[in-house]
Design a protein that fits this description.
- The structure holds two protein chains of two kinds.
- Chain A has helices at residues 47-54, 77-83, 100-108, 116-120, 124-144, 159-172, 189-204, 216-222, 240-245, 247-257; strands at residues 7-18, 21-32, 36-40, 62-67, 70-71, 85-87, 177-181, 208-212, 225-230, 233-238.
- By secondary structure, chain A is of the alpha/beta class.
- Chain A has two domains: 1-84 and 175-258, 3-Layer(aba) Sandwich (Rossmann fold), CATH 3.40.50.300; 96-174, no CATH class.
- In chain A, strand 9 and strand 10 form a beta hairpin.
- Chain A starts with 6 loop residues before the first strand and ends with a helix.
- By secondary structure, chain B is mainly α.
- In chain B, the strands form three sheets. In chain B, strands 1-2 form a two-stranded antiparallel ribbon. Chain B has a two-stranded antiparallel sheet with strand order 3-6. A two-stranded antiparallel sheet of chain B has the order 4-5.
- In chain B, helix 4 (53-77) runs antiparallel to helix 12 (256-282) and helix 5 runs parallel beside helix 7.
- In chain B, 41% of the residues are buried.
- The chains are: A alpha/beta, B mainly alpha.
- The A-B interface holds A 55-57, 76-78, 81-82, 86-87, 89, 93-99, 101-102, 105-107, 109-110, 112, 114, 116, 118-122, 126, 129-130, 138, 147-148, 150-153, 169-170, 172-173 and B 226, 229-230, 232-238, 240-241, 244-245, 247-256, 262, 266, 390-391, 394-398, 401-402, 405.
- The structure holds adenosine-5'-triphosphate and magnesium ion (MG).
- The site of magnesium ion has 3 residues of chain A, from helix 1.
Chain lengths: 258, 411
Amino acid sequence: MSTLDDHILVLNNVTKRFGGLVAVDDVSLSIKRGEIFALIGPNGAGKTTLFNNVTGLFKPTSGHVILNGKDITGSKPHEVARLGIARTFQNIRLFDYMTCVDNVRVGRHVRMHAKLWDGLFKLPAERREEERVTEEAMDLLRFVGIARQANQYARNLPYGQQRRLEIARALATEPKLLLLDEPAAGFTPQEKVELMALVRKILDRGVTVWLIEHDMKVVMGISERIVVLDHGEKIAEGPPEEVRTDPRVIEAYLGKSA
Amino acid sequence: MRNRVAAPPRSVWARLHLRERIRDRDTAIYGVLLLVALVFPAITLYTTDGSTYLIAVAGHAGTYVLLAIGLNVVVGFAGLLDLGYAAFFAIGAYTYALFASQQLLASPIHHAYHFPFWLMMFVGLLIAASAGAVLGFPTLRLRGDYLAIVTLGFGEIVPQVFQNFDQWTGGINAIGGIDQPTLPAWVTGPWAGADSISIVAPFSFSFDPIAYYVLIFILVSVAIVLVNNLQRSRLGRAWMAIREDEVAAAAMGINTVTTKLLAFAIGASFSGFAGAYYGASFGLVSPDDFLFIVSITVLVMIVLGGMGNIPGVIVGAVTIYFILNWFLPLLPPAVESLASSIGLGSLNSRAGDWPGLGNETQNVTLLLFGLILVTMMLLRPQGIFPSRIREQELKHATAQEDEAAIEQAHA
Ligand SMILES: Nc1ncnc2c1ncn2[C@@H]1O[C@H](COP(=O)(O)OP(=O)(O)OP(=O)(O)O)[C@@H](O)[C@H]1O
Ligand SMILES: [Mg+2]
């Protein structure tokens, strides 16, 4: 436990049951501050469910989620966001009929201070905060490379830009840990390269990244450590090369596609 | 910037950005509404020989504008279907009626209160807002249809309560003799039947339609400003985010429970306001004034006007109010006189099963109302003026972003 300080997130024996189905089965893992950590596994392995348990969408059936040494098991999603975990969704969940810049401004919500009265009467402090937040939102749109689309409805963006917008929105909450659920799904090889560059840029901002990804090239390309889930169980953990040659991992993937 | 060549002085016209503003549809609607609201009383007084009937109708329409603005916060902004909105209206109206009439003299406390209207307006607002929060608290975990059913139940219960606690509220007998608002001074003139313009002090509203029209004009204006501010604030965005995707909103750090609660409370507070005005302007408050049909009418107003868009909602409220309370009642006599003028006057009198053309028209007015609604929704399913504020506001910013990008490229 001497390394506790290095770890931003620790999962201790997290289990999630849906009725008889054990979607996540006694998973323990820890993520180091400032690394890109990958979670892989065949379809239905429980990867997204694990994310949901960390972000408060689900409460783990048993086990503990520890962020920066603090037990946050069972916290509400908005509390988790305030504590510094942001996420994207496997099936993009943007605010469709809000503009891109508004989507990102919603992300700033949790770091804003305006109260009901400030907004109701447009007090000077509120105006200043709104201006600042708009600028910050534009900066984030530039950061992910979609500033020109700032005023379009989110739903009108092409798919790849929607994924980027979702990342910008998540970054707006000033997370310490960013969870990306299959950020490269459906991307062309070129887009995947760009995404990898973006993830590295995010890391440079001091954000730890935990991603779920199917594409082994992407995973190998950016992550230092990988955890493999199969039927809810952790079956392997280690650096990419090691994991790729692990017989249990090969079997899990082949067994699924066979 | 400083060493740039000074731009040629721009005309006043350009400096006011009037062209841009007029191009902005919503600003244009506000402009037209303001103009109509200001000249309408003058025109009706002039054309109807000093009759204030239409001004009174407009004043009551204003009550519904307030209601529609409030319900729009709940349904249009936050996306919570509230089918019992009239309950808060009732609460506002009864709050004023009970504490500004002789009513409570006959109640178990044997004491009549006569608090001033201006105070009770805000008390009504606070009580309605609290009622909104009280209703919201246990129900906001429910979604969509379930929430709608619970609010519907609430809307049924509240008028029942006012009806059944008749020791206090007079029940079905209603509360009458409600105090009129007073002011230290007021201006009167030819428009009110006086010979010349003069100051009346002190002044009691005493059912003067013009005074009530001025009051509702101010109330609605204030409501518009406040609700516009809210829409463009942190809270307004949070409401929209919840409406769009509650899960994503929560993941972005929005406390969905308190945010929805605020929508309920703030929405309700508008109808608390409206209720006090209603009680005063009619001088009579009865449980029948707040039935389900009121909630539905307000909902129809906002859906038809353009849910989520404040100017659209106002236009919807005024349109529906005038169709229901002015146009449709006008029809039977109009049809009768049309029949007489083309020589079919015999149809106007009752004969056997035939109730007479006037009565028959009367019977189909609601059917006609339904047809009007269906037609309007078919023609403009998104509402008369759907929400487009943001698009407009931000189109402007994109242009700037493009310019900036071009500048950068040239640098
Ligand atoms: N809310 C839920 N209720 C019941 N079962 C669920 C729920 N969410 C997920 N499951 C089940 O849990 C298992 C794991 O699902 P999960 O979505 O976590 O897999 P995944 O690893 O993300 O798969 P994929 O690669 O397809 O995204 C699946 O069998 C799924 O059907
Ligand atoms: Mg998944």
